[in-house]
Hints:
Oligomer: single chain
Distance between the termini: 23 Å
Number of helices: 10
Number of domains: 2
Largest sheet: 5 strands, antiparallel
Radius of gyration: 25 Å
Structural class: alpha+beta
Number of strands: 14
Strand order of the largest sheet: 2-6-7-1-5
Shape: globular
Amino acid sequence: MAQLVKRAFKYRFYPTSEQAEELARTFGCVRLVYNRALEERTRAYAEGRKVSYVESSAALTEWKRTEELGFLREVSSVPLQQTLRHLQAAFANFFAGRARCPRFKSRKKSRLSAEYTRSAFTYCDGRLALAKMDEPLAVVWTRPLPEGARPSTVTVSRDAAGRWFVSLLCEDAIRPLDPAENVVGVDVGIAALATLSTGEKIANPRHERADRRRLARGQRALARKEKGSANRAKARLRVAKVYARIVDRRRDHLHKVSTRLVRENQVIAVESLTVRNLIKNHRLARAIYDASWRELRSMLEYKAAWYGRKLVVVDRWFPSSKLCSACGTLQDKMPLDVRTWQCACGACHDRDVNAARSILAAGLAER
């Protein structure tokens, strides 16, 4: 039986000069309102008070009436209200201990985005128009939306490489896959992105290393440019495009790997890794970032939930590399440079394959 899930469909679009100008103004107003509201909430928190969304919304109305912030009336009010809701959710997570205290949005480093709800956009037969705009957006519809879909929110964003994207949140009916007989343990690594308990090793493309020379050349050129100059802005854009190429290729590969694992296996066992601790090893940090283990696990989690599969996460302290998958004997030491080893029972192990098999056994025991 199909289940309804909230799913975002992301597309690239090409705005006209007028639309780009309107969206740039909206991004700036969204950032300003967020920072102003955060400043008020932080001050109130220091005084022992909590500010509600209703109070922040009333303050926004007052800001619009002032001469200093009257320009806020020139953009759609919906993205401004939505950024207050996001701030409210951020503080709720902070007070519940689920996240850090919200931080101010930077003009240069923060993501440029604005969220529109149904009252601020119209969508019909592939034509998407936003409030305060006369023409619909020129969206490249690379895949269809679910049949009869009515987007609940539309998020417009621009990345550091200057590309414009629109993300439509819709309800989608996803049918679980037919039950599979296979189960698999997955050990992530650097030399191989993932080693399976079947003995297969999925190669790590190392996208960042492949473009490292081009990236270094662009960064050196950027460092030579005068701050604030037009040439520096052009050099920054060239570097951002290299980064965007790396990220896009990496994400595409991770989607293919995670989709394949979910389709072929009923149970997938993975190891819980604390990446923030692993990257403290500066010799491996760059390679760990490039492998993007956390993103792979995130993809496995939501795809397994969608398609009726079981993802089992084994405790990170489980000694998967030191445990013999044949007899269960635990070795005293297992240095990183040891890639193959032989147990007293006579079994000869590839380090990563043995770890994947041990993870699978532990995962099946925890089911």
